[in-house]
Amino acid sequence: MSTAIVVGGGIGGLATALALTRRGWSVEVFERAPEVAEVGSGISLWTNALRALDALGVGAAVREQAIEDVSAGIRTARGRWLSRTDVATMRARFGAPVVIHRAALLDILRAAIPDRVVRTGISVTEAGTDGSVVHSGGVATADLVVGADGIRSVVRRAVCGDVPARYAGYTAWRAVVDIDEPLTEFGETWGRGARFGMAPLADGRVYCFAVYNAPENAPGSFAEVRALFADWHHPIPALLAAADENAVLHNDIYELPPLRTFTAGRIALVGDAAHAMTPNLGQGGCQALEDAVVLARLAGKPDGLARYDRERRPRTQMIAARSARIGTIGQLSAAPLVALRDTALRITPTSVSLRAMGEILDWTC
């Protein structure tokens, strides 16, 4: 039986462990945290990700705990629509994306994996292309080592050396909010150097995020976030007012430069360890799920890891580059450029956007 060590117990790591287990591999997941958990954040799962989840055998379980994404488009800070999503056409063309709490997605993936597979509280300090992994409990070896340990990946050093992450120039605050008033309009709002997004969750709460230009590692405070968006259109101030400050997540946004390879020896990288991207297309987690399915399909075959690299690297790097460009446009702050951007959004036909989305969403296993 082929053996694999997966370093990292996030979405990409658990999905890869599940994919390999379903193909008969003996798998161990080393997760440094004392438990696999993520709170305070939602995730959009586009139809490419749902196909991957179906291939993993958990698509139905995810849909049961998710809600169809009813994002309506992009507005200005005053509430004027810049673009409206043709939801019916999108559903007919690609199928309906869904939104789910990240913790629920992790629970579903974890529940589908045998209990013995995931080992928490294990910190990996080094990985070798020979399949060796040095960790806090000793040394382990496997036929395949999967680096699913995020943007600051330890495993990646054995593949590409030290690759510093790049700061995208903006910071994000994320929250899951209870609000008394039912919301019917969702989507994003773009201002000058700042954006706000909101999406429904199945339990009636709202996942929202606030993004604005800031120096790297600027501390900021949630009171400042509330003040920054105080005069934006309803219900943005109400959502921020309802957010629990103790449960809000604050993270600077980083990305990886394009790596020259995702594999070396017995090592393969997945998810953020391979292609950490800005969240502007909602594809970070989706691409990690694709990675898991493709890697499990190819691993163990002649030149399987080289084939994985050839299949996954061009696609993920294309999506990462596109996401970065959208972030640059969305974070424009100079008034004349913002005016040009907003005009371009208003006059761009929906068909153009749908064609561009097709390159991403038409992926199949």
TrEMBL record:
Domain (FAD-binding) ranges: 3-322
GO molecular function per UniProt: monooxygenase activity
Q: Which SUPFAM superfamilies match?
A: FAD-linked reductases, C-terminal domain (SSF54373), FAD/NAD(P)-binding domain (SSF51905)
> Could you tell me what this protein is called?
Monooxygenase
A Pfam family found in this protein is FAD_binding_3
Please give the InterPro entries that the UniProt record associates with this protein.
FAD-bd (IPR002938), FAD/NAD-bd_sf (IPR036188)
Entry annotated with the keyword Oxidoreductase: yes
Supply the alphabetized keyword list: FAD, Flavoprotein, Monooxygenase, Oxidoreductase
Please tell me the species this chain comes from: Nocardia rhizosphaerihabitans
